[in-house]
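Table S2 (text version). Query chain:
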Amino acid sequence: MNDASAEALIEAGERILGEAGYEHRLIILRDEGWAERFAPAFQALGFSTSREVTMTHRRDPDRVANLPVEEVPFAVVRSLIQEMYREDPDLPEDIALLFAEQHGKYERVAGARFFAARVDGRLAGNCELYQGGDDAQVEHVGTLKQFRGRGVARSVILRAVQAARETGARHVFIVTDEEDWPRHLYARLGFDQIGRTWEFLKSPGGSRGDQQGHTSTEQGTSNSLR
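Corresponding structure-token output:
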């Protein structure tokens, strides 16, 4: 990568994503040095910048979960996930439903496991677990607005970690936006930061928020678990 430049990476993105029919241009860098070096050039060319941190579960949580959690199939949490997407004011109804249905595909294709908690008998939030051999990742943590602040996220995440350990995972990861508050919750749950990924995005509308198809995962993981 000695001869790499922001312009060369953008050209590769144009070729790869353009030929595939995508309108957005996303460049992901996991090397801190190269990312910091290229950031000004990407920004000058109209790309937004964000950073995600990868955290791995290494320690006991600061306190135990306070809600019972069920492992359920997607069919049980479909309406819950639909409702959480509907709570995003920037998502049209049809797009919210489309995003929700994607989680059913994650179950069928990637073996996603769903963990849900109830408050007052009602499904209040959930997360997903993906596992391959020794490695597992907790994803798509979400809580309905009316139930935030009641330990839902803590409960589902810790149950997912436990389930991953029970099925042989030695390493359990979670990824979140560096600038968002959930990483502090994850630290309290026993996760330690082990890496950082830089993302440079240019969406058709010219801003990161306009590329809803790309940001839906981050929204589900980082912004809806209070």
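Notes on Table S2: The chain is about 40% helix and 30% strand. Strands lie at 25-29, 48-57, 69-72, 113-119, 122-132, 135-143, 171-177, 191-202.
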